[in-house]
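Protocol step 6 of 9: fold each sequence in the batch and record its structure tokens directly after the sequence line. For illustration, a two-sequence batch is reproduced in full.

Sequence one:
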Amino acid sequence: MKRISKVGAVLLALALCFAQTAFASGVVNLNGAERHAMNLFLSNFTEVGSDVSCYDVDSVLVDFAHDHLWFNDHDAFEYGEYANGTNCRVPDDRIQEIVDKYFAWSREVDLSQTRFDYDGEYYYHEETGGWLNAGFALALNAYETEPGRYYVSFLTFGEGQAWNSDDLDLNFADAEMKFGIPMHGGHAWITAENLSDRSTYRMAEFAY
């Protein structure tokens, strides 16, 4: 497994130094439940391996919601012989629900804006078993920049490997021992009413 690139490592170090300087007065020492909730929320984004920083583009949100379903609810998908040589489909009825659930700036999205074939009801793709789990996130630092809004830096482990919810409680040394060196790093601005309750989290800005 490859290491984070030298340029990426430098950029991540600079981001951490900036955060530590700019947000020093708002340092949040996450307890066990808060850290698990934070890691779980972030991992919903890192596992799909997509960059949702272009949050004003509907296709970014629609495709994130589709891929989130793929990684978390296989039963939502149907298999058969469909148009354009596709063999897998999922209805569009949960896309807006997922966007509303995960994003602080949620808005009604145009469901037709997507990388998939779409017929106004279903999204279709050719399933070959080639999807890659892009790993889970472990928070490095958290800072409350204003009431209920947090800046978080993170590293990702386990790209292409099987992992489960228990791994979100690993410390960095144990995560590296089990999954190898972290493959990526990033940061996010998150809103949350209760850091122990993942359902109150919303993504305000994400860079991966």
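Sequence two, same batch, same settings:
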Amino acid sequence: MFKVGDYVVHNGHGLCTILEVHVEDAYYKLETYYNKMLIKMPLEKASCFLRPILDKTQILKALNDSLLLSDQYTKDNKERKLLFQQLVISNNIMDTIHLLKMLYHIAEDKKAEKKTLGSFDTQFLQQAERKLYNEVAVALKITKDEAHSLVLERLKTEPVY
């Protein structure tokens, strides 16, 4: 069970803080880190949607392990969108990193073609970056900009924007 003040990662909303624990009414009250939105999460469903924030060692290991992940992606938009939907709602940090590696590769390919990312790729990119950068920043006690730079360095890529 999580406690008030704990950071957790919600599979759809990213980093959140536990504001309240209502045992008698069986729910958590969460606040998203990104936009301060409030969420009411039933206690019995928490294990399906929430995980504890990773610590510094786990974050750095995940970033190092990212070298093992492929950045190859399918060119078929329907297939890619389905895969990206699965990866973005996964609560596994390696899935988020994998998604970013593919999206960064797509962005590089588009840049070489003098094109920009399509709308759904852009939405997935923003969601995955927000999810990962916020967790990295809080876990490592660094700024979001420093987290952004660290992730890009570990993924060996240039900024997309």
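Proceed to step 7 once all outputs are recorded. Observation for sequence two: The chain has two domains: 7-52, 56-154.
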